[in-house]
Amino acid sequence: MNKFIAAVSAAAAGAALAFAGASGVAVADDGLSGAYTLTWDLSQAAQVKNKEVRTDQWTVTPCGAGCADVAMGGGQTGQMHLVNGRWEMSRDMTLMNCNAGGPDVTVFTSLDAATLQGFQRNTNHCANVTFEGPASLARS
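and the corresponding structure tokens:
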């Protein structure tokens, strides 16, 4: 009896997969891969002296389902994770060694997985200043 149930279950699963493929139901590709340009608009950020739009070149490599390794300019790296339909990455950096026991700067990036539009937030723990601006990621 158990063999019969297992066989029926396997057949049903196979039929469901075949149906999904035949019906054109798309399986979401949550992976990022390749060369991208991140554009970060700080032209409206009140706390920023140099009102500008910044760009950075990213090389993105998948590291599993919902995971992407990111290599950025200046030898910086990070890892994005797909969380509730958004690619998110938090990076801590020690640049000035002013925050004993913690990072000097935290950069948080959050992008909608479908549009690759979102925001990037920079928190300077040394100066106790946070600024944020719209960000977008586009294939280079």
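(Above: one complete record from the training split.) Residues 34-139 form a domain with the Lipocalin fold (CATH 2.40.128).
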